[in-house]
Amino acid sequence: MQTYEDILVDSVQDGVLTIRLNRPEAYNALRTQLLSEIADVLAQAKDDETVKTVLITGNDKVFAAGADIKEMASLDAVGVMNDPRPAHWRAIAQFPKPIVAAVNGFALGGGCELVMHCDIVIAGDNAQFGQPEINLGIIPGAGGTQRLIRTIGKSMAMQLVLSGEFISAEQARDFGLISEVTIPERSFERAMELAKKIATKPPIAVRLAKESLLKAYETTLDSGLNIERKAFTMLAATQDRNEGIAAFMEKRKPEFKGK
């Protein structure tokens, strides 16, 4: 991986590629360049067979406090219309491998939207989540109104978006926005544990499972069940499926090859 200005990219460790948001002076504000760099890393990781899972994190005090307001202020309506950021967000949303997030401190605005682009989220008990865009006379612009209501329900989504209030890590877990709460010092460690565990699973099954789960947001139950069944049937033709069944019957650890 190349060197980036706004993120740090660790070497792949046990199948896990770690991306660290690295604009501490700006509370990891998600300017266009930062999003572009994440999209570029994911484009490379998509076809890298050594990468099984991606872990995204910030620092001990902040995950990402929102969009870069100075950058946003420089755009008029035409600038917003031609903004390249929606393409970067799409690249994150369409990444086929699992993304785990470790969150400490603020995850606000675009930071909260980035959380919702991840598949599993572990947060320190110092984390706070919210969509405070209303305080600037705008609304969430990277899926916040759409993903939030599908994740935490109408009433709470309305409360966060319309009031600009924040919620705690414990509330975020109870509402289904994140999966676990830890002490801040353990959030990254726990996220890495999960990422490494997922990296040991059969890659094709992991991809199809993620795809099937995400389709549940977008389609009817009947259509979703058809998608699930097709994926289940496709996996019957994989070597990993045969290996998994054989290992179970032989009481040994499976050796998945991604084939």
Please outline the helices and strands.
Layout: E1 7-9, E2 16-21, H1 32-46, E3 53-57, E4 62-64, H2 69-73, H3 77-81, H4 85-93, E5 99-103, E6 106-108, H5 110-117, E7 120-124, E8 128-130, H6 144-152, H7 154-163, E9 166-168, H8 169-175, E10 180-182, H9 187-199, H10 203-218, H11 221-235, H12 239-249
Helix pairs in contact: 1-4, 5-6, 6-7, 10-11
Would you mind describing this structure in some detail?
The chain has about 260 residues and is of the alpha/beta class. It is about 45% helix and about 15% strand. It has helices at about 30-45, 70-75, 75-80, 85-95, 110-115, 145-150, 155-165, 170-175, 185-200, 205-220, 220-235, 240-250, and strands spanning about 5-10, 15-20, 55, 60-65, 100-105, 105-110, 120-125, 130, 165-170, 180. α1 (about 30-45) packs parallel to α4, α6 packs across α7 (about 155-165) and α10 runs antiparallel to α11.
Give a quick summary of the entry.
By secondary structure, the protein is α/β, with parallel strands linked by helices. It has helices at 32-46, 69-73, 77-81, 85-93, 110-117, 144-152, 154-163, 169-175, 187-199, 203-218, 221-235, 239-249; strands spanning 7-9, 16-21, 53-57, 62-64, 99-103, 106-108, 120-124, 128-130, 166-168, 180-182. The strands form two sheets. A six-stranded mixed β-sheet has the order 1-2-3-5-7-10, with helices on both faces. It has a four-stranded mixed β-sheet with strand order 4-6-8-9.
